[in-house]
Every structure is written in structure tokens, then in C-alpha cells.
Amino acid sequence: MENEISSANVTYGAAFAVHELNLSTGTGARAISGIRRNLGLTEEELPGQEGSFAEYKNLQPGMYKIGVWLESQEREPESKDILFAWNQRDVIAIADTKFIIGKNTGFYEMIPLMTAEVEVPYGYLAIILVDETSKTRTTIAHVKELSRIKDLPYPVPIVYDNQNHEIFGSGGYNEPYGYANSGTGSRAASSLDKFIGFSDPIIQQGVEGLIPTEGSIIAYSVTPGQYKITWELISSDNNLTNDGFFIWNGNELLLGGKRELCTYQVTSTRFSSGKVTTEIPVSKNLCFIAFDTETKTGTTEIRIHRIERIGNLSGISIFPAHVSILKNPLSMATKAINSYRHNRMGFPNSQDIPVPQTYSLESWNLEWQRGYNWYWHHINLDGQDDSTLNQEKQKFDMTTALANEEFKNAFCQAIGTAGLEALAIFNYATGFDETAAQFAGESDEDLWAYYLVKALYALAAEIGKRNNIEENILTVIIPGAHNILSKYLEEVQISGQYSMQMLVNFLLRIKDENYLPPFFQSPEMSQQLYDLWVDSWGLD
Asked: Is the pTM above the cut of 0.70?
């Protein structure tokens, strides 16, 4: 149990750490405003007049014991000096001088050694001595011990460095917070949309009636998960209904907070919300957007004090069209191959597989149009305008999407069905084979299935990139894809006595049991399929 008390990283005011930490409210103590500014605290969190502190920034997360004794001249009945600990989550009172109130000996009175346990979840602790109301008497805190005694009663949080950010407009880092504001240097709302990657006016449309005209963004690159955000909103706008900030969590635009939250006056013109904690799911990048409304009066600033990952996503919000649209590129590819093989080439087929009437772009145009209209024009699968698709069209992380049960099941059914249809088109039987089942897992069924599905997505992507209107789709693209698939399936067939039957069984398991093979879950492999899927939506 190592005593860390002499290893302070920073001392401020009447403070020094050698064999123990000494903090004083006497000569050398600093105004409380400077202490709050350095520690990122408000008057509500840390009351008082003056004091001193020490910071410990490289502690191992855990439960710590603090041992301290006080000597003090404080005698005022309405005042006391207090020793606090600040762990970046809570301000905890450790000791105070209330036990000597009323003693008028004229000398320093001693308060014997006392101990307290505090949580250190982020590897940081500040120990602060504060004179609560008067500056007439002196208290000295002798902090003898700061020792880790056990683990936290919960998993150690993952905290992102809030200095590692990207700014668009007006913003930056002012220890200990990152910030963005609607002041000088802020950008038009249309530019904010473009920065995040929206091709439609998502930010310009606003949320809950707040319509931005300008603002700034502070963005953080984070991994998908459940997050706890500690933030503070500062505003000088006199109208309580104006301004605020939005949060883009990679999936939807959320209202983070409004000007009306800023009820605590910090200067003659500026008001603060105080620190607020919000928990949200994040599917990719995390953006905080400080905005000004149509009135353009005053300045509003969002300050990000801490970004803490507290858990994994149990699922993400996937809009209905994401699920419905999954099968369209694969249906387009199988229809194209089916029509070419049987209408153009005249191959016979003993399998029960419907064949398009003609080998023409119109035969699979509906499948292509659904993806194109959804992605580019917010037209749903019924052919109707649907404003809820504004956010659906934004790209998302495939690995994150596959963590959603509904999306994963739809994906399995789409790829399993398309794979079996492709085998039937090439005249391979697609029924379950009991004999082949005895050898399940002994070959490369997952690789065979993946590259079969990828070949179908690749064909859909080539058709999409030509918006299903170029003649070479019929003369070059589809014939080339047919030859690749034909040769590939022949290689699978000859690789083992039951190889093709094993592939069929594997595809049936994917389709009927919603089984997602590990190979498909690989971020690299799933992203390759997703990129081809995006290409299938075409160009506007």
C-alpha cells in the first residue's frame, strides 16, 4: 500500500508536498475564483472565499484512504474551513474545523488525525482546503496519507481525452474542457451539415423547433458504445428560448440542451447551466454543435468536461428502411445473373427458380430504384416521400449495425436467401444434405459463403455505379460476373466430395437460424460488403 501523498503533480496557493501535503488558508492562499477556474468547478460545487490545493494526476484507479489532521485559528461560529477531495466526478468533504468553534484560546487548536475513503475512478484526485466565509483566521491541513486500499466496486471507466478533438468554426480546448460556441468564427448552418457529412439539411431543420442559423462543432472520434457525457452550457443570450446545442451520436441528431438551462450567473452577462451529465448511445463519431437561432443575439458555448465510455451497445437504432433495403442489391444481382444465364445463354435448369421474362435492365430496375430513391431522395419502399429517411441515408458502421438483433437477423436472411438462389441459378441442388452435415465445420464453408455473397454484392455495386442505365451492364458487367461465379462454384464443387452440399447446409443455417458466421462479423470483411452495398445505391 504505497503512500502517494508526496507525489503531487501540481500545487496551487499555500501548498507544498514533501513528506506530507501541507495546505493553508493563510498567507499565499488564492482566491476561490482561481481555484474553481483551474479545477473546472462552479461556485455551487465548491463554495468558499480562498484556499489552496494539490493535484494528483497519475493515480491507479481504485479506492483510496486519505489521512489528515488540522490545526486552526478559526473560531467564527458561522464559519468553518473545509478540506475537500475532487475526483472529477464528485466533491467530497473530508474534514472541517467545526469541532473547535467556540474555543477562544487564541492559539492554534489541533483536530486529531482522521481518515476517509474516496473513489478515484479516473486516476485523478485534487485535495483542496477552503476558507468557507472569512479570511481572518488560518487553518493548516497536514495530509499524511494518500494510499490505494482496494479496487473500485465497479469496472474502471474508459475516459476519452477531451483535448483530442476536431473543431469546425469557433472552439478549442481550455483546460479542463473542450468547447465550441456560436461567437465570432462560427459557420452557417448549411456548412455545419456539410462538415458532418449530411447531404440534406439535417442541422438546418433543427430539433424541437430550434432552427439554427449558425454555430460551431467540436467532434470526437470514439468507438461505438454507451457514453456518459459531462457538459456545461454557457450563454450570454438574454432570451431564454434562444440557442443551445445539439448532439450527433452517429445515428440521430439530439437536442443536448437549451439556453433556458443557464440559470446560474457567472459574470455580469454570462449564465451557466452548471455541470450536467447525459447518457447516450454512440454508434460512431460524436459531435457537439453549439448553435445560434434566427435572432443571432448573444453567444452560447458548449463545454465538454468529460467523455466516458460506460458500456457496450446492446443494439442501435436502425430505421425500418435500413432493414428492408438489405435484400434489394442482392435481389438485383441474382435477377441479373438468372436472366443472363437462362434467357441470353440458354442454359437448362432442373431447379425450381423463376426466370425474368427478358434479359433487359427493366427486369431488375425496381430493385435498383428502391435503393436509389431511398438513399438519394428519401422515398420509402412504397414510393412515398418520407422525411424520417433524412437520417437513414447517412452511412453507418457495419460492425455496429450487426450488433442490433433486428438488423443482424435481416442481414442473415438476405445473404442466406441470395446465396441459395445463386446456387439454384447455377443448377445446384439447395436442399439439406444429411450426409454432408456429418462433416460440418471440417471445410471452409464460411469462406465459400462469404465470397459467394461478396460476388453478388460486387455485381450490384457495378450496376449501381452505372445507375442501371448503361448498355455495357448487359454486354460486359453481367457476363463478367457470371463467368466469375461459374468458375468459383466449380472450384468449390471439386474441392471435396461433399463440398457443395456443405455450402448449401451452411447457407440454410444462416437463413433459417439467423446464424452470422465469425468471418462475416470481422470489421474488415463486413465493411467490404457494406461499401459495395453503398455503391449499389447509385449516383445522383
From this structure: no
Residue type, 436: A
**Predicted confidence (pLDDT) per residue in 289-325, tens digit:** 999 887 667 889 999 999 998 877 665 455 555 666 6
Q: Is the pLDDT reported for residue 479 higher than 90?
A: yes
- Per-residue pLDDT tens for 198-256? 877 888 888 888 888 999 999 998 877 889 999 999 998 877 777 899 999 988 889 99
Structural domain of 242: 158-310
| Residue 336 belongs to a domain | no
Considering the domain architecture, whether residues 77 and 217 belong to the same structural domain is answered as no
For residues 281 and 258, state if they share a domain: yes
The owner of cell 434489394 is 328
Compute the distance between CA of residue 425 and CA of residue 99 in angstroms, rounded to an integer. 89
Q: Of 95, 124, 150, which residue sits at a domain end?
A: 150
The total of structural domains in the chain comes to 3
Query: Which runs of consecutive H residues, i.e. helices, occur in 187-239?
Result: 189-196, 202-205
Let me know whether 85 and 205 are in one domain: no
Q: For residues 23 and 204, what is the distance between their CA atoms, to the nearest angstrom?
A: 52
Segment 322-354, tens digit of pLDDT: 666 678 899 999 999 999 999 999 998 888 888
Q: Is 417 helix (H, G, I), strand (E, B) or coil?
A: helix
Residue from 201, 180, 183 nearest 192 by CA: 201
From the list 146, 25, 41, the residue with the least C-alpha distance to 91 is 41
Based on the domain organization, do 480 and 413 belong to the same domain?
Answer: yes
Average pLDDT over residues 57-84: 87
Instruction: Give the span between the Cα atoms of 412 and 344, in whole angstroms.
Output: 31
Q: Which amino acid is at 31?
A: A
Q: 359: which 3 cell numbers?
A: 434479359
In a domain, residue 82? The reply is yes
Q: What is the CATH number of the domain that holds 72?
A: 2.60.120
- 347 domain-assigned: no
86 and 162, same domain (yes or no): no
Three-state DSSP at 343 gives: helix
